Amino acid sequence: MAKRRAPSSKPAASHAQTGPADQSVAALGPLSIAVRVRPGAGRTRVGGRYDGPHGSALIVAVGAPAVDGQATEAVRRALAEALGVRPAAVTLRVGATSRDKVFVVDARDAEASRRLAVLLDGAK
Q: Which residue among 6, 39, 50, 111 is the one 20 to 30 A from 25 at the CA level?
């Protein structure tokens, strides 16, 4: 008579390894961030809210002039630093020649979302 095997617990074990932290990382994807650019500022500053054409936008002031994409690149780098991500994780989606832009941030953790909420409220 053949022995009967107990059901394998391997699928359950693989699900058990996926904890809440792993699920939140998988749930987080690209963040779409509307930005209002203030080029030619005395210093770089990220924070505050502006009601623009793309909805509620984050204000980013940069010292770079609005010539040949210099301000856009400065905003991309300032936004990456403020959100705690690599500059390569921030890409421009809309508004290459406009003060109102939309950037996409490839956020892999909840920290970037939390920092964005703080920046939109204008707090440091």
A: 50
